[in-house]
Amino acid sequence: VFCRVRPPDRGGATSKSLVRVPSNQIEPTALELLPVEGAAQAGPAASNNANAKGAKFKFDRVFGEASSQEDVFREVSQLTQSALDGHRVCIFAYGQTGSGKTFTMEGASGDHRGVVPRAAQQVFDAARDLQSLGWTYEFEASCLEIYNEELRDLLPGPSTKLKISDANGVVTVPGLRSAKIVDAASLEALLNAASKVRSTAATKCNEQSSRSHYLFRMRLKGRNATTQESVDGELNLIDLAGSERTKESGVSGDAMREANAINKSLSSLGDVISAMGKRQDATGRTPMHVPYRNSKLTHVLQNALS
Ligand code: ADP
Ligand code: MG
Fold it and tell me: pLDDT value at position 155?
């Protein structure tokens, strides 16, 4: 689990950072939330409040606000590379709306490119290098949105109702469109098309993209003509819906239902990850039940997560 600190808004009133990342480490793993001035007088709960006292958190790696897209990608690149060896990889961006999830995953052009285009580029480059060893790869990408526990295909085409199929533990989404991608340009075209479909659908339903989960999935099929080996890997890069709490956003009605669906799938994701962690620790024979089916998000990702 990595934590990335977003730089404060330019010109914002709170230019003073309330997050401290230790500066004596090259690859820091901790961060500290500093007390908010005046918060100690904010009421009886304040002495119990992380904001009032300051609090320390540990992660596998912390990226301070000065960290670049390249810094972040370098840390996940081994994971994305392993998809070429046939692994099923999942990377999630989690956080409140505005915390930098989309910036981190998609990013902008040039040096601001995010994990998705960088991962794809890495895979294209690596596949080219593997050609000399007899490997040929084919790449296919899909873009999927999960909104209110419904799946939506983001590649252009007739709108169809998507359902998850689960046959003998192999979870697929029949009918989900995919497109061949061969290089950065074809990936960019695909992402642009997906983003158009996404915003059109969102406008129709009056929803915001921060309320849905966005999944970029790339399938990597490789064959070695010399050794007859083959691999079938998958890269899942997920920009999760905002993690803000319903209680704090003061919503009701449809917005409440929407927020509950988001909270449900985020907490299901937490449940799945925690059950997986326990299962790994366990030495007993009976594998612990992992509740993949409790949300569309975890169900769609079941094969990769397990
Ligand atoms: P989210 O997807 O979590 O709602 P965004 O990625 O849209 O958040 O980020 C909110 C705003 O902050 C955007 O304008 C984005 O460009 C900017 N931003 C986020 N992270 C960074 C960063 N590390 N450096 C510079 N700007 C950032
Ligand atoms: Mg976003």
Answer: 97
